[in-house]
Design a protein that fits this description.
By secondary structure, this protein is mainly alpha-helical. It has one domain: Ferritin (Up-down Bundle). About 60% of the residues lie in helices and about 0% in strands. It has seven helices and no strands. It is globular and about 55 Å long.
């Protein structure tokens, strides 16, 4: 991969992180595709597996909206979470960095639990629940690496300050900037706009490095969840749905920062070796 292409991928990650506090009209990739993420020539098994996970998620999220913001949030968030599980499964299979595997395992565990909660809520409220998470990942003694043995993860806890949004701090009201997420839009329009924005952002090319590709594609994926959760905070009526939206904003915002910190360190290390 050329330096320019690598720089383009890192710019996308930085733009996605900035969207936690304010939308940007910048586009990190000059050419976007509505049909899925592009890859390096020839691809490889990891790239092909990432692309397949992305395509499955996009098909599964292509569901009609009911007009009920509480129901729509969950029936579209469930396949979105399944997409994260599928992508993390690819990272577990191909990634080399132990911290990539650690965060992939964390994503699988957290998001399969949230899918189960969505299913219970939807069933109780008379809506057809989505399929359960698959495969179901179970924690075992070897699940997480020992941080004393593996110190390659970038970022420190104190660096999360001002990069996340805390529950109870109010709905993060932001100007529209053409993103379709301002309160003047209906919930359905805003959910659709968030989905379209995520599709464009996830068209960043694959590099062929499974550790890098996992993060550069999970950043816009997580930002899509944050955008949908912000819509839910503006429009949902059920307190549990609003609480779930808050939790998604916080957890996935923190993971975006961890992804970006790792990419920044990876870039610095690569530059020092040249």
């Amino acid at each position: 991969m050329t330096r320019a292409a690598c720089h383009s991928s890192l710019v996308l990650a930085s733009v996605a992180l900035s969207l936690l506090t304010a939308p940007s009209t910048a586009r990190a990739v000059s050419e976007h595709s509505h049909h899925g993420a592009r890859s390096v020539a020839g691809g490889g098994p990891a790239v092909q597996a990432y692309q397949a996970a992305h395509a499955r998620m996009m098909r599964a999220m292509n569901k009609p909206f009911t007009g009920d913001p509480d129901i729509d949030f969950q029936i579209h968030m469930a396949p979105h979470h399944q997409g994260a599980i599928d992508t993390a499964q690819v990272a577990l299979r191909y990634a080399r960095d132990p911290w990539t595997r650690q965060i992939a395992q964390s994503i699988m565990i957290a998001q399969q639990q949230e899918i189960a909660q969505f299913r219970l809520w939807l069933a109780r409220h008379g809506a057809r629940p989505p399929r359960p998470a698959r495969p179901y990942y179970v924690i075992n003694p070897a699940t997480y690496p020992d941080p004393e043995e593996n110190s390659s993860e970038g970022g420190r806890p104190e660096e999360l300050v001002r990069h996340t949004w805390a529950p109870g701090s109010g709905v993060p009201l932001v100007p529209d900037h053409g993103m379709g997420l301002a309160p003047k839009h209906t919930a359905t329009q805003a959910y659709k706009a968030a989905h379209e924005k995520m599709m464009r952002a996830m068209s960043v090319p694959f590099t062929g490095d499974p550790d890098v590709d996992f993060r550069t594609h999970m950043i816009p994926h997580h930002q899509g969840a944050i955008d949908m959760a912000k819509v839910a905070l503006r429009h949902a009526r059920d307190p549990w749905v609003r609480q779930a939206a808050e939790a998604i904003i916080v957890a996935q915002g923190q993971e975006i920062y961890r992804f970006q910190a790792w990419l920044d360190r990876h870039r610095r290390d690569a530059a020092s070796r040249r």
